[in-house]
Amino acid sequence: MNSRNYLALARPMVGALALIGLTMLPAGAQEAAPEAAEAVAGEAAQHTQFILNSLLMLIGGILVFWMAAGFAMLEAGFVRTKNVSMQLLKNITMYSLACFAYYLIGYQIMYPGDGWTIAGVIGAFGVAALEPVAVGADGVDLTYATVSADFFFQVMFCATAASIVSGTVAERVRLWPFLAFTLFLTALIYPIQASWKWGGGFLDEAGFLDFAGSTVVHSVGGWAALVGAIVIGARKGKYNADGSVNVLPGSNMPLGVLGMFILWMGWYGFNGASQLAMGTIGDIADVGRVMANTNAGAIGGALAAAILTQLLYKKVDLTFVINGALAGLVSITAEPLTPGLGTASLIGAVGGAIVVFSVPLLDKFRIDDVVGAIPVHLLAGIWGTIAVVFTNAEASLVTQLYGIVVVAIFVIVTSAVVWLVLKAVIGLRPTEEAEYLGLDKAEVGVEAYPEFPGATIR
Q1: Tens of pLDDT, residues 416-427
Q2: What range defines the domain where residue 78 resides?
Q3: Contact yes or no for 54/145 (Cβ under 8 A)
Q4: Residues in Cβ contact with 251 at an 8 Å cutoff, skipping those fewer than 6 apart
Q5: pTM over 0.70
Q6: 336-365 confidence digits (pLDDT tens)
Q7: What DSSP letter does each residue of 137-198 carry, written as one string?
Q8: Domain containing 394 — which CATH number?
Q9: What letter would DSSP give residue 439?
């Protein structure tokens, strides 16, 4: 029997001895005992709440981390065979770099506490410190959660914003310039604007509402992706001189569907754990409601995309249905708590419709978005932020639009500066020959789908 088993047996015995001891106390001491027991019970309840809140964020962080696999599989399915390894490599290195940049700079900027560099606008600069928590020690806020659990959950959101950009600019951007942009996005651009809402900055003070990040996460990635697509340009052969569009089919639809379902699953942590508490009956009920509404948003988006593509094109387009589900998820992310299931489905359905109508519009403007991230994350993110006013009585349409516009201007300007500087200094695109061969051969050196030699290897 190990020491943990001995402790498990010892605890009931200690409790029984304590009760026997209470009966043997003098009368005055016995009267004081209930007050002491009540204090101990209160402290235990506080500790339990602290533990459950931390656990929610840890589980949520794991689910959001799993979304990295979803993005990787989705992109691997939507790009051509000659660029699959490159997308997989980008997703691994981008995630790793995002987490490191957020640790070094981003987290402290996003959550400066009382240490704002410019109050309400620019947070504090410094490295995230995750000191061990001495429970009950002075200065430890037991009403929330451990700093380490909070960091673990929040860093996953930062990495998600970077993942959105990857799919849009796929197949025509070199690895290292893309990673350089990721560094700026995750260390500065994302955390600065996120601090305005989630760090207690000026958008939060103005009453801007964004429960889990339709604007703070998804539209930020969408704006950065849109600017990148414009600066980098379209893939060779995507658009003809007469304005017609050439379809460049993805390599593997089963991978695309797998990626969608992984993202769908991860979204339960993305939205559900954004409740940030489950230490009370009310909190855990809200977590369940958020998850149910998150699922409703996704099914609304998928069904709307399926119906609309059947009506418009006489066939159901699988890629639209995949992105319709994801757009429904983005749409419900800004407020997944207050709607009913039917309303949540309708909010998601509008997101699915946005995808169907906006993809041809992007092609009309010759904006090449390989995976459809701009309709899914940017446009549906804007819609979801506006939709908050339909179910949350505390929301103001003017304030919601104000938050959307402020974040848009900031991300567009900063992203444009970074993309253009990188283009001028080190270049963004591979050579025409490398793009024709595919980035798996040109940059990675490992092909996802190699052509085996005809001769039999003995």
Answers
A1: 999 999 999 999
A2: 42-444
A3: yes
A4: 76, 77, 78, 79, 80, 81, 84, 448, 449
A5: yes
A6: 999 999 999 999 999 999 999 999 999 999
A7: -TT--TTS--HHHHHHHHHHHHHHHHHHHHHHTTTSS-HHHHHHHHHHIIIIIHHHHHHHHT
A8: 1.10.3430.10
A9: H
